[in-house]
Design goal:
single chain, about 210 residues, mainly alpha, about 70% helix
Length: about 210
């Protein structure tokens, strides 16, 4: 059974009023700060994905890159450059995902708003995809890229090339889905579903 605020020790009572305007007159500024952090993080997260998927990524396979590297170095080095860019992007992706999860937690603790399952699942899914891509998928693609160009036997090179194409195609498909999810997440941060609500004291009565 949860005790009423009056029954709690004096040093504990202020904690349950974290999101109550009467307890904290600066609450409006904190709410504004939380919204700003969420919106800026979503903008960086979504913008980085758009730049990576439609700008930096395709550039590594372009004729301009082929002309720069020459026929002897293309496509091995172009794919290696793409993997370096991908690694840097997903490092940023993971950071933005952690900030998004921390933002959801702050909203829950300060405003008493437990996130809806859809938004919680979307945020977790986006963050987890970044971890999976960075620590599992990219090392495999790097290995396949090296094997398809350096393996001694043609059978090994062909097998590595097929594996690279399959893994890269599946990964890119998930990346485009990720971009759609980030667009939805950005829209949600730019358009909150309802005004920030404060925790009523009645919620703490048993």
């Amino acid at each position: 059974m949860i005790l009423a605020p009056a029954a709690l020790p004096l040093e504990v009572r202020p904690l349950i009023k974290l999101g109550i305007k009467l307890a904290f007159p600066y609450g409006g500024r904190v709410i504004g700060f939380l919204r700003m952090v969420g919106l800026v993080n979503a903008a960086v997260w979504f913008g980085a994905a758009v730049f990576y998927l439609f700008g930096a990524g395709p550039l590594t396979h372009s004729t301009a890159m082929q002309g720069l590297l020459g026929p002897r170095n293309f496509p091995y080095f172009s794919q290696a450059i793409e993997q370096l860019l991908t690694a840097r992007y997903f490092h940023l992706h993971i950071i933005c995902g952690l900030i998004a999860l921390a933002h959801l937690t702050a909203e829950w603790l300060y405003l008493g708003k437990y996130p809806r399952r859809f938004w919680l699942g979307l945020t977790l899914g986006l963050a987890v995809w970044g971890l999976v891509n960075d620590y599992s998928v990219q090392p495999r693609l790097k290995t396949f890229n090296e094997r398809q160009h350096t393996a001694a036997k043609s059978e090994l090179r062909d097998a590595a090339r097929r594996s690279f194409i399959i893994w890269n195609t599946v990964t890119q498909s998930f990346n485009y889905l990720m971009a759609v999810g980030l667009a939805v997440y950005f829209w949600r941060q730019a358009n909150p579903p309802d005004p920030a609500r404060f925790v009523p004291t009645a919620k703490f009565r048993g």
